[in-house]
User: Fold these one by one.
Assistant:
Number 1:
Amino acid sequence: MANNTDFLLALEGVTVSFDGFKAVNDLNLYIDKGELRVIIGPNGAGKTTVLDLICGRTRLSSGSIKFKDEEISNLKEQQIVRRGIGRKFQTPSIYDDLTVFENLELSFPRGREVFGALFWNRTTEIIERVREIAEMIYLSDQLDRSAETLSHGQKQWLEIGMLLIQDPELLMLDEPVAGMSVSERTKTAALLNTIIKNRSVVVIEHDMKFVESIAHRVTVLHQGKVLCEGDMEKIHADPRVKEVYLGH
Ligand code: ADP
Ligand code: MG
């Protein structure tokens, strides 16, 4: 058991049972600051449930989840967001009838007016931030476009942008490149490598090519437990991984 404070996120002994079935079973998982971690594993391994537990959507049955050395497993979803954890679901949840700009603007964290900034000043700050994020997510020239007319990949980027504008310290993405074209995948890999500079990112992914293009460290989940963890070389060399996942 680790008890030092260098981890941004630490899951220890985390178990969740659904009607007696342990979807996550005594799981230990540690994410460093500035790390890009990929979680892989066969369908039903518990990957999405792990993200649900971290973001407070599902309650653990036992164990501990610490973010910056503070227990968060007892907090509500919104409180966890405010602590600095952003999570993207498998299907994008953007506002179809709003423009790209409006979607990003809406996601800008509120409450800054408390500090007495002038209105025009606040607006300028928001506009600048929206432009900065739009540039990162390859949508600079799409700001006035209605979100529903974006390609599937662009919608995924927009949702990532809506999380980035909140400047989370930990960003979790569930299968972000599913349904993307090859060139969109390449750009998404570049995007993830850019945003990692100020935060940690946890990505669940199936596409092994994509995993190889982004992964620092990979965790293979199987039956709610860590089967293997390490760099791609180690993952590839592990016969158990081939058995449960790569061999499929
Ligand atoms: P993965 O994302 O790795 O494919 P999941 O985390 O979605 O796997 O699911 C892990 C297991 O837990 C699956 O067997 C799934 O059916 C089950 N499960 C997930 N969420 C629930 C729930 N809310 N109620 C009951 N069973 C669930
Ligand atoms: Mg899943």
Number 2:
Amino acid sequence: MVSNVSPTPITVAHGDGIGPEIMSAVLRILDAAEAAIAPEVIHIGEQVYLSGNTSGIDASAWDSLRRTRVFLKAPITTPQGGGYKSLNVTIRKTLGLYANVRPCVAYSPFIKTKHPAMDVVIVRENEEDLYAGIEHRQTTDVVQCLKLITRPGSERIIRYAFEYARMHGRKKVSCFSKDNIMKETDGLFHRLFDEIARDYPEIATDHWIIDIGCARLADTPEMFDVIVTSNLYGDIISDVAAQISGSVGLGSSVNMGAQCTMFEAIHGSAPTIAGQDIANPSGLLLAAVMMLVHIGQLDVAARIHNAWLATLESGLHTADMFVAGESQQQLGTQAFADAVIKHLGMQPQTLKPVSYTARDAIQTLPYERPEVRKELVGVDVFIDSPNPDANALAEALLAQTRAPFKLKMITNRGVKVWPDGFPETFCTDHWRCRFVGLENQALRHQDIVALLGRFSEAGLDFIKTEHLYTFDGVRGYSLGQGE
Ligand code: NAD
């Protein structure tokens, strides 16, 4: 066994709601299996939020995380009401936990599922996309959220998914995006997926538009192996996948960074069942198993995992897994942990036993920013105007427009309303007015400043600008509908 291995320091948070009871069950199993860990307990979540710290985590907790670099976290409760930042998003971004990996496996026939052959791993980008949290109210009618997809962030997660597939003997990596609509952001993600796939010729690939991909995942998950996707899509599809694999109480996830790694169940703090000793500790236990693999305690990880599988096979189930007539006995959280402890040393008979081999950590490649020629070719000026008449706005803008610009079009919610708009189109108070350079004339920042200066003098309420660039001659912005 591992008793002569010096214990690895890990940071542990007992969390809120069902967190403390499932964490206590998991730590008892780890202890019984002689995992060589030295837990440092930190306090995060509801109490820290309610003490006035809007991020839910204080400085001493960060110190522990930066010291141990391994975090076993129970779910926490985000208090209702505004002003509280998501602790998970804060931890992921602060510690650079760029890859969220969620295995979603069916345990048929012992756990009821419509998809007995399901075995999907979802690799979700964890730091960018709409989770950048850059939101603004710009007019009376309109709020916006910036979707940021970056080349380094996308390259890193896509390469991680392929490396993961190669390392775990997986056969296929599927990319989910919505690049038929978001040609710049999701288009970049899809293009990079196709480029990086060429470095892994032994792995099959395909691409799915997120909506039909999600429908197929919910209907026929056996057709997927590893799925890589951006942050919001990954958030949604991984909950769908966990739910249809059997129970939300079984799902675990690892949040992987170059320096730190966080392990947790996928479910939340389930406050309505807290304190009743009925929660399923399995999601957190499987996260702890992944943690043991991560810190190199492979035998202990396999011993616990196999004992857990054998427990499921014996029909000893918590309430969420229990099916009358099929399960043997319904157990509470702590009794289920006791059952897993009793099964330590046993192997499952029907489910495939698990063994872990030492693997190198997946390395990230240094990012090489490509050399590109960037040219300013125009500007979108966003105007706040409650007058629904696009022609009147065009007239006011044209009166202030001088060389080197010409007004090319006005859109409202992305639909062209000038020139040649339709009277049927509903217009808000948020207008995008596209100005481009006259033929062959190079544009400079001063030109934009001068244009905005004239708008200001004329009382036009500009609320933001987006510059239009080409990169090596390729347009770096979307065309307006009808342009
Ligand atoms: P939830 O996952 O807590 O609960 C959803 C449903 O699943 C509930 O019916 C619950 O009883 C059940 N459930 C969840 N875990 C279970 C388990 N281990 N065993 C048996 N049943 C289980 O989601 P929610 O209700 O949307 O959120 C509750 C709180 O959790 C919120 O404050 C939310 O912010 C927080 N949350 C935290 C995390 C995290 O810390 N990683 C993740 C999601 C939600």
